Amino acid sequence: MKASQFLISTLKEAPADAEVVSHQLMMRAGMIKRLGAGIYSWMPMGLRVLRKIEAIVRQEMNRAGAVELLMPVVQPAEYWQETGRWSKMGPELMRVKDRHERDFIIQPTSEEVVTDIARQELRSYKQLPRNLYHIQTKFRDERRPRFGVMRSREFIMKDAYSFDRDAAGAKASYQSMAKAYRAIFDRFGLRYRAVAADSGAIGGDLSEEFQVIAATGEDAIVYCPDSEYAANMEKAEALAPREPRPAPRQALEKVPTPGKATCADVATFLDLPLQRTVKSLVLATDRTDDAGQVVETQVWLLLLRGDHDMNEIKVGKVPGLDTGFRFATAGEIVDHFGTKPGYLGPLDVRKPVRVVADREVAVMADWICGSNEEDFHTVGVNWGRDLPEPHAVADLRNVVEGDPSPDGKGRLVIERGIEVGHIFYLGTKYSAPMNASFLDEGGKPQLMEMGCYGIGVTRLPAAGIEQNHDARGIIWPDAIAPFTVVVCPIGMDRSAEVKAAAEKLHDDLAASGVDVLLDDRGERPGAMFADWELIGVPHRVVISDRGLKEGQLEYQHRRDAAATKVPAGEVLSFLRGRLQA
Amino acid sequence: MKASQFLISTLKEAPADAEVVSHQLMMRAGMIKRLGAGIYSWMPMGLRVLRKIEAIVRQEMNRAGAVELLMPVVQPAEYWQETGRWSKMGPELMRVKDRHERDFIIQPTSEEVVTDIARQELRSYKQLPRNLYHIQTKFRDERRPRFGVMRSREFIMKDAYSFDRDAAGAKASYQSMAKAYRAIFDRFGLRYRAVAADSGAIGGDLSEEFQVIAATGEDAIVYCPDSEYAANMEKAEALAPREPRPAPRQALEKVPTPGKATCADVATFLDLPLQRTVKSLVLATDRTDDAGQVVETQVWLLLLRGDHDMNEIKVGKVPGLDTGFRFATAGEIVDHFGTKPGYLGPLDVRKPVRVVADREVAVMADWICGSNEEDFHTVGVNWGRDLPEPHAVADLRNVVEGDPSPDGKGRLVIERGIEVGHIFYLGTKYSAPMNASFLDEGGKPQLMEMGCYGIGVTRLPAAGIEQNHDARGIIWPDAIAPFTVVVCPIGMDRSAEVKAAAEKLHDDLAASGVDVLLDDRGERPGAMFADWELIGVPHRVVISDRGLKEGQLEYQHRRDAAATKVPAGEVLSFLRGRLQA
Lengths: 581, 581
What we know:
Radius of gyration of chain A: 30 Å
Oligomer: homodimer
Largest interface: A-B, 51 and 51 residues
CATH architecture of the largest domain in chain A: 2-Layer Sandwich
CATH topology of the largest domain in chain A: BirA Bifunctional Protein, domain 2
């Protein structure tokens, strides 16, 4: 490929709305172009990256026995009504009416359509297992699209769906996909981690996220350097402390804490460690009648150590909170505690509340909490002595660095990640409402067991850039670079030797299957180098008159601090060595 | 590829709604699956055909210097408002609102978006010419989707757009695309014709359709076997007859024609040739004021020979009718002619009408038309003698077989075609309203001259099938077959020799780059052969125990009446010969 036959358009400045480095660099390198909020065109430079990602995904999916098809972008609502997602999904599901006022959606995923295909096509146990996938445009009407293609509304996803005769088969299909995903992400050349994820309403442990490690990632991921343990923050368990609760040593005392409404302020004010404080979170659950009217409300007090954060997923698993909860209103709080947030605690509540203590809080002694009176906290609080044992003890919090690993093999470390893949055992979540069944050996209909497996194709380039960039621009791994090698001739228009050498090198590399671009635009060296450093092509060869006189070309990897002189006759074998590395 | 790792699902019967053979065969061969009206999933077998089509299109577009990008499916309305298409396009433009009630469309084409990209990216004459294309999902909310993927609502199109500094450049870009299109359609292995098409409001001759020849085609295409002339029916010119108008020989006479309201009935009733009759078509044009109120209506009488059909495109070019016309209402007809349709004519009209005669009618003598009195026609009508010369003479009709070719080199032939490509010189139709300009050598802004070039990717398989099928199923050309070769072992489960030979042949062919499928499903020979004849794989090799004992395999091309025995050792070289053919 020659630059003159391609569209290269780099920018000195990123647009003001580009907040993260991948968005800035993708805009500056001319990889994407904004059309509207969360809607981007993929410019030729960016499309080349996408196509390489798609090719790797496709090869490994096919190798794993999955079969590619292509399901529509615009889907009739009736399928989504069958599974109930038509009404369950919020405004992120883009709805549209056709000329006959019939309802359609623009697909965010394809569970309904693929299950409809399966229930028609897969009628016998002999046709199972089966894994069907497509790489197709999706739309999610995000409330706040941002970060360019990282959280866009229109995007491309590879979504695969497995169909099995029983749960054991589905789990084997899941494991096969887990293996394929590792093969895919290994090939991308990105540092990533597969982490256990919460599998929500389905239950079980079969859900994993594939996270590209990047300091700017939106997700916190948790792993143990001494073992295989890795999970996302939602999922990572905070074990119960092994040490038993110490005996009380302090007397209960109410102390004035004027204007100190946070644990941190209270700890500083009283000159006590934050770890001694306990924070109070007030939730509520409503019981409704058949007409949806609230007939009873239960107020809950959740107690966490002052330096810990609540984990909503874990809270949603506490018996009694697992059918849905909300934060209590200001009115409900005053009604039950007699004061406003900042000074709440489990002592002397006005009306009964259900108290749930985090595992850590349950073994604390001599702790500090609000007195249920404005500007006062109570110190020396002890379970059993000053208040009854909590109604329940549960893991309510996010883990923190240094927490013991749930597998007992070391301590947890936390880093940031960008979710680029997710695999999921679904069971009969979709096959049951859509009655997707097959006939078993006995001729009896059985529901298919399903799994689903996604890769965010258009998010991957952004994740790759968040992980691989420097002040000058992007640094692509070879596998997904828009071009693997760029040949930069200096003074090609003035020197027939330079022109001939550049074209020969380009042609030789192209003939041997290397994805090479010859920059024949005639830019000055400084502007040309800056472009390619911004765009992030990993391997660069510079050809100049002076170099040719010495019989040498200059090679520089995008990560190298300086160029290496390579004898002109050896440049092909030299490059082959570098490309294989 | 092994059949057991693929999804093969053939049907004995086509669904009742499949009217045309391509739709029936695509459904029966398991290539597509209906999701809703005009919305289909591409099943694995069909997707392989699509991918081959896309690859050929991509290669030839790139070879022609076009650059691929990817523009969004969902596009903000604002761009479509800039060009006016937001209001001009009818309900076939699928409109959708996002969660903020902002307007979007699901793209039917991408002129607006690509012009927006061009006006940002192409700022200098040095960056022109430029051709940008994408292969992307489109949606047109057809009033009556039908014929499967032939006229579907969701479809995939390759659409390219060229940008040039002037009209001469744009025409060169157009010619380059015309050449690329021929290369593309040549490679598909389908019989096609490039025909001149009407270029509508833009004017000029630069519009061509690429039509796959098929008896079931929706379009009539016209060509001259003795020259290069080819056009679609809308465009093909009916020359003015060379012979001058004969002198009148008959007297004018009103004759009773009770209940004979069509030219055909009148000719039969009077025992005169249909070619002597003249039919009357009544149109109207309205002049409106600034508020859109009709202030004046002009009624037009168009006269065509009784056996000729009106061509609306041509009528729309008659001065006075070229700003829009409609058919006259029943009231307007009675008001002007004093009688109802069936007995109309240019003689004795009640109120003045503008008379436009087709070129053919203008040179007729002694013709027959309605008497403007129910159940009466007039014979022996002659221009100049019985009525004034027409206000205008024009080409108003469709050509018929045997008409002289407009290039004067022979006579026209008509056949049916399916439009699969269209190339179009656009001028500044989009660049002007969107102000897509570049700076010329003098630093002066100039509007870009554009062209657009489409290929109906998802329609092509259907067109290919309409052209290539027999009673047993599809017959794919090699280039776009889902598989090029199918290896059919007989009794693979019983015979280790058959299994080994089949697998070796499959592996050898695959290793040499042949797209081969091994049917290891264990079907009986009859069912297996029927499947592959239905699916239409062009080359089949049958391996049986009996054959192997004789050292022979059986080869049969899908068009062959019988199989050819091939020595087992020569099958690879034999196939290579057949595949090259």
